[in-house]
Each structure stands twice: as C-alpha cells, then as structure tokens.
Amino acid sequence: MKIRGDLMINLGIIGTNWITKQFVNAGEETDSFKLAHVYSRTESKAQSFIDDLSKSNISISTDLEQFFSSNDFDAVYIASPNRLHFKQAKMAIEHGKNVILEKPSASNIREFTILDQLAHQKGVYMIEAARHIHEPIFKKVQEYVDNNREQLTGATISYMKYSSKFDDFLAGKKPNVFTTDFSGGALYDLGVYTVYDAVVLFGQPEEVKYQPEFLEDGIDGSGSLTLKYKDFDVNIIVGKTKNSYLPTEIYFGKKTLLLDNGGDITKVSEADDKKEIKEIPTTKSDNPMDSEAIEFARIINENDKAAYDKLFEYARKVNRILEQARMSAGLVFEADKEY
C-alpha cells in the first residue's frame, strides 16, 4: 500500500538503529520526509547508517549543539534510549526544530510537561511516534469499538516478546533496555503500545495498578497492568523475557473482537458465543511506519493544531498512566532522582 504526501520535510535523525531506518524509509516511500542530517556519537556509525541506505550528500554530526544548529533540517526524529529523550528533545525545541519522539517521550511526567511548555513557547510541534494507532488496521478496530461501545465490557491486551537483548542481560551485561539508568523495562517498551491501545480505544482509566516481575537490578522484565474504568477493567500483559501467542481480546457481551497482537496488529476477527470466528477485512502497509509518517508531515505542513492537540492529549494520558503504573509498583528510574 502506498500513501503519498504533498511536501517532503527535511529530516534530521538521532539513533542509527533498525527503527530509525524504518522511519527514514517510510518518510521517503510516502514523499513525507527526506533524510538530510544524521547525528551519532561516532562518525563511522553515522556513515555506516547512510551507506546502508545507499544515500549520499547527507550531513553528519557527532556534537549535538552542532547538529541542532544546522539549517539543513526542520524536524528531528529521536530514537535514542528512553533516558536521553528529554535532553535531546529539549535541545531540539530550543533550536526551533519540530520533534518526533519515539515512545515514550520522557522518563516521567515532569519531563513531559517541561517539553510541552517549551514547545508551546517556541511554536514547534512535539509528536510522540505511536505508529500503530495511525495504521488503517488500527483505525478499523477503533471504528468497531465506537460502533459497539454500548456493549463494551472490557478487554485483555497482550504483548510479550522475548528481547534480543535479554541474552546479554543474562550473560551479565547491562543493555539499556534492561536498566533503570536508561528508563528501560517491559512497561516502558512494549507496554507503551498496550497503554496507547487502552487510551485511544477506551479513554482515561480511573485507577492504575502495575504488578511487575522484577529482574535482579530492579527493572521489570514483564508484568501485568490493570486499568479500571467505570464499568469495566482492562487487563494488560507485557513482557520482554518471554514469548506469548495470546490474542488481544475486546469484549462486547456475547461477541469478542480478536486482535492477533497488542502492538503490531496484522489480523482482526470477530467471534460469537458459538465460537464462530469471522475475519474482518483490513489493510496494512509493508512498512508499518508509513501511516504515521504521512500524518506527521501533514500536521506540520498544514499546521493542523486540532489534529496535533488530539495526538498530544493521547501522549499526555499515556505518559501519565505509565508513571502512575511505575509508582504503584515502586519502580523508580534514575531520571526521577534528578529533580
């Protein structure tokens, strides 16, 4: 599926990993963003990233001040470890850049609020890259929930995937995604997708409680999160230390909506009380970031504040729920101690 934008935005990136490459490709596939500048701690990593994309004439910076002072890009996509989001986004905003932040935007709601206030002062956008809520397949789920909201009786959302970094952790190393130093763990990685599911589909919960399975250094390897709403509960299972093949289920009395995944949905079905399952036709791009790239570029190009405010309110609720969940479990990040 091809989605086309109208005006390509020059893009700077922080983070030379697979997810950054995917966003760069999505931006160019949809004529939304054009890579102009790469920041990395080492020039060799930046050059390797550029070569892997078969590109040329791309600027490289190994100094953040030099990077953000450049005039060759108008928006920056930040996909660094969670702990670094706040400092890097703050610098970007101070230099008048629009910011696209991989989720979660910040380590805590205090950082999120500071970035929000600064973005308003500088007149730029700060967008959290919750890519899956922009996909047509998620929109189909959202439409189904809206059309059957009176029968809604709860949900179970599951997203557990054995991390490629967990073997390193077991070997005594300290990958960023498994340390409180870098605001890692299951909840602040795969869990963000599931909380977005709940917020977009069901709204703001009244109560939040997280029960994690702690690893040796105090980070959560997996856990269960309960979001209590007025008339129903949403139960969430997340994990980076094991694989789960449980579907995500949304309940409507005798009917159940089945999603094959809580974060990367590829199939949606409806089941009735006779166990008859009917697949719901949907579409999905080969690159799951295509839809968010076209929407982010549209918001920036058209200065669509209404659409931006809606996305930002989702992000605010999600980041607040994440912190409430951590606090309910006594899970403290090093970033929390900086104030």
Automatic annotation (TrEMBL):
Coiled-coil ranges per UniProt: none
Annotated GO MF terms: nucleotide binding
All residue ranges annotated as the Gfo/Idh/MocA-like oxidoreductase N-terminal domain in the record: 9-125
Transmembrane domains' residue ranges: none
InterPro entries listed in its UniProt record: Gfo/Idh/MocA-like_OxRdtase_N, NAD(P)-bd_dom_sf
Domain of life: Bacteria
Protein name: Oxidoreductase
